[in-house]
Each structure stands twice: as structure tokens, then as C-alpha cells.
Amino acid sequence: MAGMYRPDQANPAGRRPRLVVILVVAFFALQLLVFRVFRGAPSPGAPAAAVSHVPVLPRRDADDSGCGGGQVYVYDLPPVFNEDLLSQCDALAPMYSLCPYLANDGLGFPAKGTNLSGILPAELVGSWYSSDQFALEHIVHRRLLSHRCRTTDPARATAFFVPFYAGLAVGRHLWATNATDADRDKDCVALLSWLHAQPYYKRSHGWDHFIALGRITWDFRRSPDGGWGGSFLIMPGLANITRLVIERDPWDAMDVGIPYPTGFHPRTADDVRVWQQYAASRPRPKLFAFAGAPRSAIKGDFRALLLGECQAAGDACGALDCGEGRCIKQNELVMQLFLGARFCLQPRGDSFTRRSLFDCMVAGAVPVLFWRRSAYLQYAWYVQVGNDHEGEWSVFIDRDELRAGNVTIRGVLAAIPEAQVQQMRKRLVEMIPKLIYSAAGKEGLGDGMMDAVDVMINGMGRRVAEQRRSWSRL
Ligand SMILES: *[C@@H]1O[C@H](CO)[C@@H](O)[C@H](O)[C@H]1NC(C)=O
Ligand SMILES: *[C@@H]1O[C@H](CO)[C@@H](O)[C@H](O)[C@H]1NC(C)=O
Ligand SMILES: *[C@@H]1O[C@H](CO)[C@@H](O)[C@H](O)[C@H]1NC(C)=O
Ligand SMILES: *[C@@H]1O[C@H](CO)[C@@H](O)[C@H](O)[C@H]1NC(C)=O
């Protein structure tokens, strides 16, 4: 499981005297006893007077609208924390304007009339967009606002969503040479001071609050000695808030991995089924495919090695050079490649995770992974992870064996029996709904089909219940 084997934490307790262990156990047993005896009894004078009107548990009235994970309250933040950022869309990223990608509630511009529509089944052209990962904060916010499990009454909420577009806020300063550390953190500091004054924040100290981030966790973890990024995720004021993020820090339990957005944003379960059928039945002439930009300047770059493997495999492999943002601007090339391949290679890039993993899975190609942190230690709410399940929807290849020349990609993949490949593809295709951000309205996709945001709401419901012991007795 994630976070269980941090190397620098290996072993500490082993050599401590036994007495300490006994004392610790006794202490917790006593705590448990005290908790059991006093649970339910109002503890005199405990909750701060300012928040005494705030109920500790969400009020559960008759119509819960089938929201098993509970209901979500979406904060109405001052616009400086979200809407104002959208209006600066041409100045948020260095290489290109985000404006087209933030259109249509963050889904981007429609596939209709673009090259992307050329590779889609006709009835699904309206379900695809040119989407960008940085729009995720906006996508999640919009979808939660119209979600059937949203409540406008905080007293009924199980979880509280803070729609601060932190990735957009920090992104505009990441490349600006004249930006200071204080510039990168200014909005985050202001947001926390606003939030800490809210009664429902005070009730739980943030333990039932969450935020979504469209940039990787490392963009918000600047070391105290300076360096890359903002420091939002290491600010003490954010300590108790759950961060749903496209790449998590595997050693921070407050980070929860969520899918990168792909271009697929269907409205109904029927639309999803049409796509599932399409992905399941495509001819796949290529054994494997790789879309990536090699960093030729880096000696021993793993992506260059994979490109070499691809070339050596000849017709069995398809490659796409993603240099110059090609795979973002021309997503149809990526989807076409993956729809025609049985496997797709997913090495780490500049960070451990990539949008490409989700393009690959949505296309029904089986991902080939080389780092556990690229998926298994990331997306536990979304994909089955852990040693028991490797091989169900993915293939893991030991990168050192590959580097040593002991195995080849083609050799490993060609040795997997066709029946097993089909089984993996079937499993993947079943997983598609949970990996996508639907454009469904209040009723959701329908037929009980869950998308990535539905999974998020249920996940937060479970998490808040688990974490309640961190605060409900304060
Ligand atoms: C669409 O495809 C055509 C033919 O492959 C290509 O010439 C053109 O540049 C593409 N347009 C865009 C916007 O990518
Ligand atoms: C950095 O420079 C740009 C352009 O010269 C300017 O618009 C911006 O306000 C400056 N930012 C800061 C934080 O000084
Ligand atoms: C986090 O929660 C703990 C109690 O579990 C509380 O003491 C602390 O003040 C909280 N931190 C913030 C920033 O709210
Ligand atoms: C590669 O194979 C050799 C010979 O069997 C073995 O000694 C070596 O440990 C292998 N390398 C890796 C990284 O597994």
C-alpha cells in the first residue's frame, strides 16, 4: 500500500525498549476507554463558542437523493480565488494560451470540426473536446456545482469543497523570472486566512474539507531553501485538508491521486457504452505504442531507450514524437495511436505520472509501467492497486532488466497470451467510466454509472468518516 515503505522511515521502532511499547499500548487503551465512556455525553465547555451553532454531524434529512457518500457543500469563494484567474487565461501558462482550453466549463473546445472528430464514431463527436490538465480545477468545480449530491446547506454536508484554482494561481508565476517566492504563495496565504475564519472550517479544523489540483503535487512543495514551485501543500494551515491531485506525493497521506482529464466528456451512460464498444472492438495492428518526447540532452534518458526499443520492433510498434506540445494540441494523433495498439508504454516523464496513461486506458490499450509511482501508488480510489492486482489491467516491466538488456519490450509483450491480453482489455474497458470527467447534468450519467467525480464524492465520504476521530472530540 502507498506510503508503507518509505526507505528513510525503515526500522525506527525495532530497537526501542519493550517497556516503551507497553506504555504506548496502555496509553491508547486508556484513551479508547475514556472515549467509549464519554462518547455521546456532551463534553462541558468543549466547542468554541463561535461555532457552537454548527452541528458536529451532518443533518440527514429525508431526501438524500441516493448520495451514499453524503453531500458536498461547495464554498462560494471571493472571485479572486477562481473566476478572476479564468479571465487572465492568456497569461496563465508560458507556452500557450489556456483560453480555448478553459472554454465550455473547462472541457476545452469541442472536437466537432477539428481533426479529432475524424477518428471518432459519429455519434460521439459531441462527447469529445480538446481538454487540458490545467483546466481540471475548473472542471471539477463546475461539475460539483451541478451535482445531485451538492447541498447548499452546510449543515447537511458531509464534505466541503474549496474551489480555489491553486494550480492556475501558481502556474502563472512558475516561469516568470521576476516572480518571487512571495508572489507564488500570495493567493494561497490569502485563501487560508479566508478559510480559517469560516465556521465549518473551525468545526473540523479542515478535516472534512477538500480541494482539487490540476498540477502535480511537486509544483506546490517548494523546499524551504527555495527552488521550484509554490509552497501551498506544505503550509501548516493546509495540513488537515485533503488534496485531490493528478500526481500525489506517495508519502503524504493527505494527497489523493485523481485522473488527469482526457478529451472524453460524455453526458450519458449510453454515450459511454458506445465508446466502450468502440474501444473494445477496434483492430489493433500494433503490439505496442509510445507517445513521448525524448530528452536527448539527458544522458541515459529512459524515454530515448524506449524509442530505441520501438524502432527495433519495426512494424510491431508505433511511435509519436510529443515535442513542442504536439500531443496536447493534436490529441487526435495520440488517441489514434493508442486505439490501434494492444499495449502502450508509460515511463515516467519529467514527473512520475502522465496524462498519456489516461489517454491510453480510455483508448483500451493496456498500459506498460516501469515505476510503481506512475499509477499503483497514485490512484487507489480509481484503479485496483497493489501486487495482487498487477497484471489485471497493466503490465509492469523491471526497468533495470530492460536497461541491462536482459529483456526487450517486444519480447515481454509478445509472450503474453492473446487470451490474457483480451482479458486485460476487457477489464480496462470496464474501468473507463471512473477514469473520465463526464459532462453529465444533475442526474449524472445514469444507470448507476459512476464517473471520476462520483468516485471523488464517495471517496471523500469514506475519508471524512475515517478522519472524524481526528476532530469530533476536540
Ligand atoms: C489536421 O490534419 C491535417 C492533415 O493531417 C493537417 O495538415 C493539419 O495541420 C491538422 N490540423 C490541425 C489543427 O492539427
Ligand atoms: C514581471 O514582469 C512582467 C512583464 O515585464 C510584469 O507584467 C509583471 O507584473 C511582473 N511581475 C512581478 C511579480 O513583478
Ligand atoms: C489540524 O487538526 C488538529 C486537530 O486534529 C488541530 O489541532 C490543528 O489546529 C489543525 N490545523 C489547522 C491548520 O487547522
Ligand atoms: C541481467 O542478467 C544477468 C545474468 O543473468 C544477471 O546477473 C543480472 O542481475 C540481470 N540484471 C538485472 C538488472 O536483473
TrEMBL record:
It is a single-pass type II membrane protein. Residues 67-409 form the Exostosin GT47 domain. It is found in: Golgi apparatus membrane. Pfam families: Exostosin_GT47. One of its GO terms (cellular component) is Golgi membrane. GO terms for biological process: xyloglucan biosynthetic process. Keywords: Glycosyltransferase, Golgi apparatus, Signal-anchor, Transferase, Transmembrane. InterPro entries: Exostosin (IPR004263), Exostosin_GT47 (IPR040911). One of its GO terms (molecular function) is galactosyltransferase activity. Belongs to the glycosyltransferase 47 family. This is Exostosin GT47 domain-containing protein. It comes from Zizania palustris.
